[in-house]
Amino acid sequence: NDLAVMMEVSVNQVISTCLSLGMFVSINQRLDAEAITVIADEFGYSTEFISSDDEEIITEAEDHPEDMIERAPIVTIMGHVDHGKTSLLDYIRKTKVVQGEAGGITQHIGAYNVTTDSGKKITFLDTPGHEAFTAMRARGAKITDIVIIVVAADDSVMPQTKEAINHAMVAGVPIVIAINKVDKPTANPDKIKEELAKENILVEDWGGKYQCELISAKSGQGISELLDKVLLEAEILDLKANPNRNASGTIVEASLDKGRGYLATVLVQSGSLSVGDVVVAGAHYGKVKAMTDHRGVKVKKAGPSTPVQLLGLNGAPQAGDKFHVMGSEREAREIATKREQLLREQSIRTRKHITLDEIGRRLAIGNFKELNIIVKGDVDGSVEALSDSLLKLSTPEIQVRIIHKAVGAISESDVLLASASDAIIVGFQVRPTTTSRKLADQEEIEIRLYSIIYDAINEVKDAMEGMLEPKL
Ligand code: GDP
Known about the structure:
The protein is an alpha/beta fold. It contains 15 helices and 21 strands.
């Protein structure tokens, strides 16, 4: 399918060419470099492999099942502002982090690791909120295994609660609900459960599948139980990694420290990272000079699901960049240089996110199946009406999906979600904020603004029929 898109031919032509060459392939099958070269040649194209994709540049050996051992789940806490995300993270850090050596100062490095009462480990990403989560996902990083959604029991399911639920669901990450502030006299957990049910989150004691715990980030009530529920969820996911290989993982944070140089917090996802290893991350590389954990304790080695801050890179990679340990400094430098070139080229070339105009072209080459839309509007009634009408435009060929709908201006978080999910944003009687407009330009996300519902529906319909007149 990807190859067909690149060559602007129908996917059927590619498949039949493969068949005539003796290759039985399906539409989503990955082809090796040799096959791609042969097929492209049949269509009169020559090939050059320049992808910045880690899989393409860095070939990783497959793990044997017997080398895989259990790893700690990686958790992100999300929810509405003031519902207690930071308090929960702080409470867990204070009570569950095993004390460091004397002199170790607990510091914020973007992630930390706790040992629960049952002796099991959980890794928390220390940047609460879905912006960071979705920004990482937009960069292709999948690090969160489980999301805790915090809802204050003395408040309601709020817009950002819904947004967080949405973001976790779109990412396919399991959710555990924490109803917080139950120490407050005005707390009403049942009301929250009812509101969650309206968002299709039916909690367990109401017969649903979502685990839920009543907690207080102030008194600590229910927090051990909450962590047990996270572990239960992790057990179902059967999270495993091989600690005995060259490390790879994701950058969580990076900064420049005037005295020490570039500091990067990395989350090891596979293998073990050791001092002295040569690392490449994004367009930067370097030899690991020193590593510390979140307690400020020096460590020599870090295994799967462990966050560490490392010193030694020659620049600051972006959060969400992958890192890999390489065999030699020369190899790492070559890859970093190549990526830098690619980044430069890529920023010149356009990234092809979906636009209404683009639909016609993709339809013509037969590879368009799903249209993801984010709907924002000024009042609930129009958001609902517009979303329903757009959904009804679905045809057997193209499924329309409303991945998020809400009242309010088009926010940066909407743009990030659109970027992560290849969606267009439809605004009805609302505008993007200046910063989200800028971000949309940068990410090349199409925002369509309407003041008449009928116009919005007609334009999307025309686009889906390949009939939209391109805007000049
Ligand atoms: P965030 O914006 O989601 O990170 O929320 P914070 O953690 O900053 O909490 C917002 C406010 O609620 C702060 O004043 C906290 O002290 C308070 N708070 C958080 N959790 C609880 C709780 O369990 N009980 C009570 N009574 N207050 C809480």
